[in-house]
Amino acid sequence: MNSSRLGFHCHNLDHLDVAIGSNNLHRGEFYNLPVESLPRLKEEIRKRKLLLSIHAPLVRIPWYPTPPTLSFLCDVNEERRQLSLRMVQETMAVAEEFGAEYVVVHFPVPSSTDGHDVGYVRSRDIAWDSAARLAEMSRRHSIAIHMEGFGPSPLLSVEFLTEVIGCFPGLRYCFDIGHMNIAARRDGFDLYAFAEQLAPCIGSVHLWNNRGLNDYMDFGHIPVHPTQKPDDGWVDVARILRLILSSNSSCCVIFESGLRYPVALGGHDLRDGVKWVSDLVAGLS
Prior knowledge:
The chain has helices at 16-21, 38-48, 78-98, 120-141, 158-167, 177-187, 191-198, 213-219, 237-245, 270-283, and strands spanning 6-10, 27-30, 51-55, 102-106, 144-148, 171-176, 202-207, 252-255.
């Protein structure tokens, strides 16, 4: 796997030196930036010769609900679905302008529409329609869309995701290690079997770690680090990467964490975790 596939998620351009520069990375994934920062982003990409992806939305949108990671693509409410589709469409247009390799979108997600008891068949039909619309955006802009599953949803399954990706070539899966660990613990499926079965469909990996929902609530996205032992409840990062990259060496690996390791958990150096993963990935090349 080429080192250019490794990158860091940034939602503040002032973090570029700490996140990307000090770790000798050549890729950035950018998210929710003020519109006035776009000229600087273009200049930083040019100056640093960065490859890039985008996590929707790239630009802060005054008309979209907070937090902007909310997605209504599986909602029975058509108006809410259209809101998310509009947000993704605007992101895709900017992504094409910037030459992004792909755009990450939260899908499938739980329906946030209150007062509706929607069965599996109806939920699947709604999600399939949204997937078709995402695929059309991907085709129109010639940019892949990576779907990041989030939250409790009956559609967060190998069967549904492989079927969608098999039918819509412009779509891939973004395997978020932290959120998938929480989902596996909550829903009772095997995290590692899920990763192995879905590996051919995965376009990118989001890297951060936790020992369950309480860690996420207390510390947010914890940076990965070699001291995180699976016997202590952490995700086995090396095993996950081996399962995915052994059959899919082209996918990107994006560090999606904060820039400081929580002091309460040891206060480790972020760079040690990046170096550890870089060595793991190099060993799988």
